[in-house]
Amino acid sequence: MHTVRSRSHPAVRNIYKYAKGQAKLGLKEMKNRLKHKDLERGVQRGGSLRCEGGAGGMQRRIQSDCLQSRLPITQHFGQSRPRRPARRYTNVEGFQRPPPLRYTTLSFLSVKPPPHILSSHPPPPHPLSP
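Predicted structure:
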């Protein structure tokens, strides 16, 4: 079977070989980097967690922390996603949540200017009126 590489000139064949070798090295290096980062963070490849902890809710919280600190494998080329907040926000001293926004009609358009402004400046003619 003839491939593009076998039909090409010797110089092009050398370029193909070089590119293939560089790609293999790059993949091996990337795998080693990910493996090293996961070992530092206490996670093994394959998703098994190495977190030891108590029972019940504490175990779940520790497991959640381990999952939070783990890098996603394929997302954003090795950048970690932002952490989720640990708890829902509560009312802290002096902090009050602003009231919810209410959608209203454009009531500010119905406000009319004082009559003395209208009498001194007549409105301009509308451009579409005959």
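Summary: Residues 8-37 form one domain.
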